[in-house]
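Please check this protein record:
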Amino acid sequence: MKSLRTLALTAALVLGLAVAATAATAPNCSKKVNSFDFVVDYSGSMMMQNKQLKMDKVIVAKNVLHRINSAIPALDYNGGLHTITPNGVIIPQGPWDRAAMSAGIDKLKSGFQIFGRMTGMGTGFQEYEPFISSMAAPAAIILVTDGDNNRGANVVDVVRSMYANQRDLTVHIISLADNPKGEATIKELAALNPNSIVVRGEELATSDAAVERFVLAVFCQEEDVIVLRGVHFAFDSYALDNKAQGILNEAAVLIKANPNKRVILKGWTDYIGSDAYNKVLSQNRANSVKNYLEKQGIPGSRMTAIGCGKSFKYDNHTEEGRYMNRRVEISFD
């Protein structure tokens, strides 16, 4: 994974991840994986209620997978959907289709036996592992689990063996752990691979921004991005103030230092107003930055301005979050 560099500019230009408001239509998403598989822990403990969301954990898993599936960039991934403990195939690995995956996720159910139904997650992964070799590399397993494993093979040892046998594989975890033992198991699994992402299921179930971050981290290559922390806009405006112009002056220096790279300008809005109106407003913001950079000597032919519409990267329910969403980001292509 490409490491992100931090740029020490007085105007607070930093390099970070480009996050799209709607990942399914995110421009310039370079595929990070060729295949992925949703793996849902179907054990008795997953049929128990999540105390925060007041629904069975497997139903939380179902809702979260729907949200992720809706946000995956529309690229030619292979995908599948499986359960473990007990093991089952809901959608076999093959060309990913958003609608077909959604129909498969709908088949996840709760209401099965809880007590006396021991969890053999390690053994389940042993049975699942031969299937992984058929996945197009690089591959991602997205495991939804509460981490309980109280019989059979040790799941940490099994996943460690999987990594030894399968190149270009990463297991990401959506955690619904609700006890110290489950949390410890998930922590050990994540420690096996520095690229593993662990995120709470409750966060994905309730935060659009969390879904954006997770989807882009799993499915899209990291890009060098100049996040213009000071280039924000007043409500319903695309005018650049003095602070923004100062930051763009320093951005122009950095762009000139990379003469062989094209520049992508992405404009965003907060969530107030219609999608159509905000699409135009975000385009105007990107154009405003492009026009200013042209005046600083950056050829217009090097730059592409894209209006991305509404952003959910920051909390739209607060004034500060809405202000942070009204921004322009620059990336090198």
